[in-house]
Design a protein that fits this description.
The protein is mainly α. It contains 2 helices and no strands.
Length: about 40
């Protein structure tokens, strides 16, 4: 029981960091001038 709690916390933290990385990558791609007219 005691080990499942920190593991769940680490998983939640990792998924948050993953979604944040995805958001930052998307923001970087959108900010590039060469990609803006490619996406739209």
């Amino acid at each position: 029981m005691m080990q499942s709690r920190p593991l769940k916390f680490i998983n939640e933290l990792a998924s948050r960091q993953k979604s944040f990385l995805t958001f930052m990558t998307t923001a970087n791609i959108l900010s590039w001038p060469g990609h803006s007219n490619f996406l739209h």
